[in-house]
Amino acid sequence: MLRLNLLRVFHEVATRQSVVKASEALFISQPAISNALKKLQKDIEVRLFHKTGRNLTLTEHGETLLSMTVRLFKVENEIRDFLAELRSDAKQNIHVGLVTIYERFGIEQVIQYFSEIDPSLSVSIHSGNSKAVIEMLLTSSIDMGICGNVLVNSNLHYKPYKRHEIFLVAPRGHRLYGLKDFSADDIRGERMVLKETGSSVRHTMNAFFQQFAINPAVVMELSNIDSILNIAEREKCITFLPDMSISEKLSGDGKFTFARPMEAGIAFNTYVVWRKDGLYTETTRAIIEQFCSLGAKNDQPRFLIPLDSTGHCNAL
After folding, report:
1. Segment (H or E) for 181
2. Buried (b) or exposed (e) across 172-210, using 16+ Cβ within 10 A?
3. Strand duo 93-99 + 144-147: pairing
4. What's the pLDDT tens digit per position in 163-192?
5. Crossing angle, helix 4-16 and helix 19-26, to 10 degrees?
6. Residue 73's pLDDT band (boundaries 50, 70, 90)?
7. How confident is the model at residue 216 (pLDDT cuts 50, 70, 90)?
8. CATH number of 162-267
9. What is the residue extent of each domain of the chain?
10. φ and ψ at 80, to 5 degrees?
11. CB 256 within 8 A of CB 169
12. Using CA atoms, how far apart are residues 202 and 200, in angstroms rounded to an integer?
């Protein structure tokens, strides 16, 4: 069996071209170095060095083996650095993927939860739609994610985080402006600007459209809330947005009204998601579990957008 310690001795002697220097680098006596080289050459039955006086030169086979040990110990150093980084990250840093809407409207609460777990914890935020967050998890780019109900994967754990109601948003001048609730028939044939495919809002609305046999006339698909509202206002078309996203932009200025469906509430759940594999340190896993507990404890059923009698959004 080839022993790594013998290859390490060979590598040091070959790169330094000196038993003495290799001895100093490895904190091993010179006789021990020489014995290790003899043992290695005996095991592989190949001469690796030419010796002329006190000078050592590599044979052709020795040169080939050296090129391999250079790669071998480079990888060893990379592994050592990686493990050190993992230990450091587990103590000080966690990488979190947030759906785009949470990055803008829910990030303060996320950071607050982590602060409650450990005030010294550093949180790195990565964003994308639900599909992108899942992909980041599966490629180990992040430690945990908060995303919607778009994709379920057998390699991931899911734990409920928050529930969000979706409202119909109608701009001033549209025939549905001012409604407090609407029916499926009210929106048949209406032009709509919708959240992009891959988002939880779009996934939920697609299910609603399918349930009531609605073929939406989509003007545009966008991810940015401001852009969606600008298009809806300019084109006098409707859109659908979740409770958490509309209070900041629409604070009772009368440009838009919001309505709930008569047939059934339109809502989606968000989840804390993490991998089932064993790549986590105990510290990281404990942080994720504590975060889930905080989210469940603080998730009281509620709508974040108070509406007045005309269906207008009042400033919070």
Report:
1. strand 181-182
2. eebebbebeebebebbeebbbbbbbebbbbbbbbeebbe
3. parallel
4. 889 999 999 999 999 999 999 999 999 999
5. 130
6. confident
7. very high
8. 3.40.190.290
9. 4-90, 97-156+276-298, 162-267
10. -60, -45
11. yes
12. 5
Residue whose token pair is 């310690």: 5
Rounded to an integer, what distance in angstroms lies between the CA atom of residue 130 and that of residue 124? 17
Mean pLDDT of the chain: 83
pLDDT at 251 over 90: no
Question: Degrees (nearest 5) of the Cα angle 239, 240, 241?
Answer: 120
Q: Which residue has the higher pLDDT, 96 or 81?
A: 96
Third-level CATH fold of 4-90:
Arc Repressor Mutant, subunit A (1.10.10)
pLDDT of residue 153: 76
Look at residue 129 in the predicted model and tell me its pLDDT: 82
Asked if 165 and 243 touch (Cβ cutoff 8 Å), the reply is yes
3-state secondary structure of 179: coil
Q: Is the pLDDT of residue 302 over 80?
A: no
Q: How confident is the model at residue 152 (pLDDT cuts 50, 70, 90)?
A: low
Q: Judge whether 125 and 99 are in contact, CB under 8 Å.
A: no
The alpha carbon of 120 is separated from its chain's Cα centroid by a whole number of angstroms, namely 21
Q: Which long-range contacts (CB under 8 A, 24 or more apart) does 71-80 make?
A: 72/7, 72/11, 73/8, 73/11
Q: What is the CA radius of gyration of the chain?
A: 31
